[in-house]
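For anyone still unconvinced, we reproduce a single protein record, the chain in one-letter code, the fold tokenised, and leave readers to judge:
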Amino acid sequence: MKATSDIVTLTTEGVAPEIFLPAPEKIVSGQPRQSIWNNYSSTDAKFHSGIWDSQAGEWKINYTEDEFCLILEGESLITDALGEQKSVKAGDQFVIPAGFQGTWTVPNYCKKIYVVYEA
């Protein structure tokens, strides 16, 4: 979606989702089909916001961006490279900093609002 001077509502309605699987070498288990409804991108393409969801599965993550997340539905388990785990569920808000590595696991389903900044 292009940048605009209007206030943008984060929604899945009327926005075509990008549907994908993580790269095969990143999938640890399952078939975590994911959808992104990107509602906003800045003109310099460094700031993005929208809605993401995923079906059950686990995949490796390597963040090059800073991301704020607000879980809307379901739950996830985020494990860092040292094996420390954080369980997040509907209502939880958190930031994943650039440089974070580990795995993201969705036991059943998860839906979140994301706000991403790519330096």
